[in-house]
Amino acid sequence: MAAGLRYKFMDLFYAPLDEIKKVRKEISDPFLRTETLADIFRINTLYMIKLAGSGHIGTSFSAMDIAAWLWLEEMENPNARDSKDSDIYFSSKGHDIPGLYSILIGLEKSRLIFCINFGDSTGFLGTRTFQSLSSRQIPDL
């Protein structure tokens, strides 16, 4: 098994929050850190989409480098509701949401559920949920 990755479901792996924290702390170069975390977030995005049985992997993967750079290096006080000095992240695609979930969980910005099943019988967001990468209770954005 690859170091730092955990076996979880159907021979898929994800990077747990403890490993993401190590990368955030130990890689000082912002370009290398962002590149590494974007790849980790892609792994976790793939895991979420496969586990849910639904999702658009291409959009999440293609937007990951830009979204990771924005969240890690550019945005100040991102999406803080009560702050006048808050940058807002907005994506009009919607299909990149699994990637955004990976970023938010990996940066401890959310305790978002690990996955949502989008293909339920109602045609709306499903109700099947999975555990978060984070064991801490962190307020949602």
Report what the structure shows.
This protein is mainly alpha-helical and 141 residues long. The chain has one domain. Strands 1-2 form a two-stranded antiparallel sheet. A hairpin with a 2-residue loop joins strand 1 and strand 2. Helix 2 packs antiparallel against helix 3, helix 2 packs across helix 4 and helix 3 runs parallel beside helix 4. It is globular and about 45 Å long. The N and C termini lie far apart (34 Å). The C terminus is likely disordered.
Task: Write a short abstract of this structure.
This protein is mainly alpha-helical and 141 residues long.
What does the radius of gyration come to? 15 Å
Termini Cα gap:
34 Å
The percent range for strand residues is under 5%
Q: How many discrete structural domains?
A: 1
Class computed from helices, strands and strand pairing: mainly alpha
Largest sheet properties: 2 strands, antiparallel
Strand order of the largest sheet: 1-2
Mean pLDDT: 76
| Shape type | globular
How helical, in percent, are the residues?
40-55%
SSE string, helices as H and strands as E: EEHHHH
Poorly predicted segments: 113-141
The tally of beta strands, per DSSP, is: 2
**Total DSSP helices:** 4
Write the layout of secondary structure elements.
Blueprint: E1 6-9, E2 12-14, H1 17-26, H2 30-52, H3 57-74, H4 97-106
Antiparallel strand pairs: 1-2
Keywords, separated by commas or semicolons:
mainly alpha; two-stranded antiparallel sheet; 4 helices; disordered C terminus; single chain; 141 residues
